[in-house]
Amino acid sequence: MRGIPVGSRIILISDGKGTPDQWCLSGDTVRPNDPKAKILVNSNMIAAGQLLQTSGNTLYCVPVGDYDERPLELIARLSGGDLIKSDIHARIVQHAQHQSAAANYVHECKDLEPGVDREPFLKAIIGVESTTPGEPNFEQSKMDTLTLAMKYTKRREMSLMFSGQGDVMDEVNSYMPCIGTRVRRGPTWHWGNQDSGGPGTVVGHDSESMVWVEWDLNGDRNTYHYIPGIHDVMVVDEERELTEHQRIAVGCKVKRGKDWLHGDQDGGEGNIGVVCRTRSAQFVHVRWPNKVIRRYRFGAGGRFEVELVGGRKPGGTSLTILPPRMRNGSTTDRSKETRIEMSVEDMNRRNQSK
C-alpha cells in the first residue's frame, strides 16, 4: 500500500499455555514448578513475536478456555498487534481499514526531513487526542491506526537505511552483549555450522532474549538465544581479521579519521568504536562506547571520517581467549577456565590504557 509492505495479519486462537519445543512433556502445559521450562517458553514466544515483526507481519491473539493472558499479550505486542478479547472482536474486522489509512498517512509524511519525529505529525492528521485508554478523548480506532502508522514509518526508515537486510541496530536488554561485541558459539550452541567455526559480531538485539550475530567467515547473519542459563553464543576477546581483499568489515575497531566533522558524537577524542554495518566498503555504521550508532564515510568521495585501529591481518597472532578448536568443533577441557566476559566498553578502556 503506497509502496509500504504492510505484511499479513495473523490471528492466533490459544489458551497461552505452551511447552518448550526442545522438550517432550506430558500434555500441552508447562510444569508449574519448572522455572527452566517457563524461561524457555517465554524466550521462544518473545523470539516468535520479534520474528513476526521483522518479517512485516502482525499477530492478534484471541484467548480461549482457561487461558494465560501474559504470554499471549507479550507475543502480540512484540509483533505490533494486540490481545483481542471476545467483547472487541470488531477490531480484527477493522484491521484492513486501519492498514489502508495508516499507509496513506505515512505517505503524507514522506517529504519531511530525515530525522524529524513523525509521531506528532501523524497524531495531528489522524486526530489522536489521547493515547491513554480510559481517558475521555481516547479513541481505540484512531489509536490502532496510529500504532500501524508508526510501525510502517519505522519499517520504511529501516528499509531505506539497510536495503531490506531484515534486522534493526537496536539494544533492548542490558544483560545481553551490546552491539559490536565479539562472540563465538556458546555452551548451548545447537545451530550446526552456521558460524563456519569462526567468530562473529553482535549487530543488534532481536528481542529481550535473542541477539543478531554476523559471522566473520561467511557473512551470514542470524539470531541466537542469550538469557540466563541459555547462551547460544559467548563473548570473547578476539579481534576481527581482514582478508587481503578487505579494507574494512563488521567487527573492526575504528576511531576518528582525518576528515572527522562530527564533534563529540563518538563520546570524545580517542574513543574506540566498532563497525556494525558496512555498505559497499564506502560507508560504515559504527557503535561508540556512549551507545551512539551513526554512519560515516570510509572512502566515499575520497573522505575518511573514521579510520581503522590496529587492523590485524591474517597470519598475525590471535588474542582469542578460547582454547584451540578440534576438527569436530569441540574444545579442550580447559575451556571453562579461559573464558571471560568482555563488552565493547571493556575493550575500549583496555585499548586506551595501552
Characterise the protein shown here.
The structure is a single chain. With 354 residues, the protein is of the alpha+beta class. The protein has a domain at 9-162. Helix content is 26%, strand content 19%. It has helices spanning 35-54, 69-79, 90-93, 95-108, 119-126, 140-162, 335-338, 344-352, and strands spanning 9-14, 58-63, 82-83, 182-185, 200-205, 210-215, 221-227, 230-231, 233-235, 253-256, 273-279, 283-287, 293-297, 306-308. The strands form three sheets. A six-stranded antiparallel beta sheet has the order 8-7-6-5-4-9, with no helix packed on it. A five-stranded antiparallel beta sheet has the order 13-12-11-10-14, with no helix packed on it. α1 (35-54) packs parallel to α2, α4 crosses α6 (140-162) and α5 packs antiparallel against α6 (140-162). The longest helix is centred in the middle third of the chain and has 23 residues, at 140-162. It is globular, with a radius of gyration of 23 Å.
Short summary:
The protein is built from 8 helices and 14 strands.
